[in-house]
Design brief:
single chain, six-stranded mixed β-sheet, 3 helices
Amino acid sequence: MTVAQEKTELTAQDVIDLATEWFRALDRHDTLEQVTPFLASRGLHMVFPEITVRNLDDFRTWYDNVLNLFFDETHELTRTQVRRISATESEISLTVNWQTKTWTPPAAHSVWKGFDADQTWTVVLEDGRPRIREYSVDKITPVPGSPGL
């Protein structure tokens, strides 16, 4: 995107598109360099069940851990509700169905796990692109047949 093409206003569709692309990147296990552009450079605050991320170093630690713990992941957005805060800031409340497998050596088989995760994000326009500034996993509910985290 060139400077002339940079957005000056954040739309609800921009926010939903960001969430969709974020989860696709997680499913592909994109590299750290590919996922950090989704994140705001200032004010980053992400609350996951296992860690609170306050900067890119914290994020790197979290991301390295999940890349080595979860595989065959799929994330499907099942609910989105965007609330505009200003021309350059919005909040999204969403539910994502997350399915994954884990393996703990020396187990003979992996374990499937599935959850519905309610999340709230604050998305800001930074350098003409939507970026995640705040991210909170508010509630994780195992789907029928799934063990807990």
